[in-house]
Amino acid sequence: MSSDTTRIDGKPEVVKEPSMLKQKEMIARNYEALTSAPETGRKVVSTFVPGNLNELVMCFDMLNNLPEINAIQNGLRKKSGAMIMDAEKRGHSEDVCTYVKADIGMMGKGNIAPNGKPLPPPDLLLLSYTGCFTFMKWFELLRHEYKCPTVMLHIPYQGDGRITPEMVKYVVKQLREEVIPAMEKVSGVKFDIDRLREYLRESAKAEDNLVWVLESAKNRPSPIDAYFGGVYYIGPIFTAFRGTKDATEYYEMLRGEIEERLRKGQHPITPEGEMEEERYRLVVEGPPNWTNFREFWKIFYEEGAVVVASTYTKVGGVYDLGFRHDPDKPLESLAEYCLGCYTNRNLPQRVDMLVQYIEEYQADGLLINSIKSCNSFSAGQLMMMREVEKRTGKPAAFIETDLVDPRYFSYANVKNRLESYFQMIDQKRRAAGAAA
Amino acid sequence: MSSAEIIRRCEALYEDLDFTAAREWKAAEPGRKVIGFMPIYVPREIIHAAGMLPLGIFGGGDQLEVIHGDAYYQSYICRIPRSTIELAITKRLDFVDGMLFPSICDVIRNLSGIFKMMFPEMYVRYFDVPQNYRDEIGGAYYVEELHELKRGLEALGGREITDEALRRSIALYNENRRLVRELYDLRAAEPWRVPTYEAYLLLRAGMVLPVEEHSEMLRAYMAAVREEERPMRDNVRIVLNGSFCEQPPLGLIKSIEMAGCYVVDDDYILVTRWLREDVPVEGDPIENLARAFLHHSVDTAAKYTEREEDKGRYLLEQIRRRGAEGVIFAAPSFCDPALLERPMLADRLKEHGVPYISFKYAENSGQMQPIREQAGTFADSIKLWGDTGS
Ligand code: SF4
Ligand code: SF4
């Protein structure tokens, strides 16, 4: 296996496998396409990760821009702190979702993409969102600034833990009568359902391989980290690439690499090379912290803790529970996709998923990373934790950080908490051993 | 009855976290059921037509010590979910047969799941509303939602909800809404006659009393205050915005007026004014309720505003119609909808030269002094600005 372990400023860089290089190239190409839209004349749609309609966007030759991903990029590059402060100076409350403020602050600083060029203003805000009310206000705020066309796709919440035929009908109707006409108008391209079918067929292929990759963590040792590594694996399929040949190739490549790792009995790759030992297998609930992502991850791999399953990697679609985009029922399938995203599931469903993960992936316990500014994920997590402990008998731990606000990441607190959690797992094991 | 007596009754109802009045209503006849609901909007007509009592649950206020609730919600989440859980755990809601959680925000949404897990025997329903306002799209979906609620209540009550019963309930709630509007009109016209904390307590009473009794109470109160002499003060007229869910403590509601601001419109207990026009009594009652929601409901942060030019229109209309001189944004800490909405509304006010101030509270905020000072300074500056005419 070829690898590229460049070191910048003496710091170790993530070991790059071919799939990583491919993903990097895809993302760079996408940013290039976005920032050169004013020259190429292509139209830009801003939309959200959970419930995004990438296949549909592509039917109109438009480009997909995702403000959450921009916020994550700025978080990883340690630029989000200043942007958030800027937004707060402009009257945004310190209490609200920091993705929104990072995005608004980014706008104030000229909307510079990671390639150093400005992102063009969106031609259309596609308010397709699932599981979070903040999204709705976020795009109202952007519309307030950009004064551009906005189309709303309201996705009902699975309050009773199921998708009803009425919900699907409602979403399909909105797609037909609101979303598609708006996209036709902005792009000047006529909708072609066969083109959509083609993209959906492609999506399903990539989805199969993604599921295979995520489920490889059922092995001991796990060849992947399904949280820290997982956020890279979901990148293409959750963003502007679902439905493209690029994504299909990426996931084939990734699967090949992991098959290889499995054959060799290898551990996950970390920013500092391969993990040496698998001491703890964890399930993680909640998004990661982005501003201190590396430090955060390091606490885990230094202790030999592997995340074998996570819910965050399901925000853009819960494929491992069986959903696939389906070319035979294109619009219904888009509707079901939106309705099924992780945070659109009710709390009992989320608890069921965690319990199932702990059992199927033979995890030692559950860790909740509770995000201070994200009510969608966080409100109710303490209850979820207790339920999961009760039902699995496995210990759970709770830490608090933020997504992209560096003020809310306390390295010492997180480390202490995790260390005592690992000790707790050890104790449980000893007790179980003694009992046996 | 004097207005003071009526308000004393309202105060007693407000302070009674055991909901004795609702318990008594339930006990008065066998088979009666009570359905709790959270702020902001649920169609109470359907609950009423089922022969049940809709009971508004507005958190625990500042008298409830939250002990258990803190184990359910982290410190960076608003307080209403934890005090609501506290009410439930301490058995204050043990007589409630069902709970409705209207789609207002992520916190309430997740709270519905917590109730499902904690009280598996209870009828718990997340009540979704459309964010698409076209009859054939959002309307069709909403009609189905309403039917599902209706079916759920029918199963719970073991009897059919007839169209006739629905029409009767719609008529009763139309009347109640007319009376609330009259109360608000009266307060805007003569704010010294209807202090806001009295108006507020009257609306809160409407959350625990049967609608028929509440309408009586509103009538009696208005008749009484029209007769009574009350001193006029040199207050400025403001609209209060952002308090549609977790309610401020009563002390805060009083403080604003004491600091020199007459509240001439607000978004407290919005369920009582959600539908701005009468719901037609003739025709299909469920369709009528759906249409009223789609086309005649108030604007609030929990709803999507379809067109950019309509953002803030409702607030500006409140200001104009009520002759207000400024706006006080008062939102619960950590309240995403209210706090995200605020910058957009504030921009609209700036465009129209309307002065405003903003602050946050919690239902158990104890410190009124800073808020009183801020509101006082605001009132003074409006008076000064008015004098200089600049
Ligand atoms: S509240 Fe949470 S889910 Fe919603 S936009 Fe913010 S981070 Fe995303
Ligand atoms: S106070 Fe605000 S954030 Fe809290 S439950 Fe109510 S609407 Fe939601």
UniProtKB/TrEMBL annotation, chain A:
<keyword id="KW-0479">Metal-binding</keyword>
<protein>
    <submittedName>
        <fullName>Benzoyl-CoA reductase subunit B</fullName>
    </submittedName>
</protein>
<keyword id="KW-0411">Iron-sulfur</keyword>
<dbReference type="GO" id="GO:0046872">
    <property type="term" value="F:metal ion binding"/>
</dbReference>
<comment type="similarity">
    <text>Belongs to the FldB/FldC dehydratase alpha/beta subunit family.</text>
</comment>
<dbReference type="Pfam" id="PF06050">
    <property type="entry name" value="HGD-D"/>
</dbReference>
<keyword id="KW-0408">Iron</keyword>
<dbReference type="InterPro" id="IPR010327">
    <property type="entry name" value="FldB/FldC_alpha/beta"/>
</dbReference>
<dbReference type="InterPro" id="IPR011955">
    <property type="entry name" value="Benzoyl_CoA_Rdtase_B"/>
</dbReference>
<dbReference type="GO" id="GO:0051536">
    <property type="term" value="F:iron-sulfur cluster binding"/>
</dbReference>
TrEMBL record, chain B:
<keyword id="KW-0479">Metal-binding</keyword>
<keyword id="KW-0408">Iron</keyword>
<keyword id="KW-0411">Iron-sulfur</keyword>
<dbReference type="GO" id="GO:0051536">
    <property type="term" value="F:iron-sulfur cluster binding"/>
</dbReference>
<comment type="similarity">
    <text>Belongs to the FldB/FldC dehydratase alpha/beta subunit family.</text>
</comment>
<dbReference type="GO" id="GO:0046872">
    <property type="term" value="F:metal ion binding"/>
</dbReference>
<protein>
    <submittedName>
        <fullName>Benzoyl-CoA reductase subunit C</fullName>
    </submittedName>
</protein>
<dbReference type="InterPro" id="IPR010327">
    <property type="entry name" value="FldB/FldC_alpha/beta"/>
</dbReference>
<dbReference type="Pfam" id="PF06050">
    <property type="entry name" value="HGD-D"/>
</dbReference>
<dbReference type="InterPro" id="IPR011958">
    <property type="entry name" value="Benzoyl_CoA_Rdtase_C"/>
</dbReference>
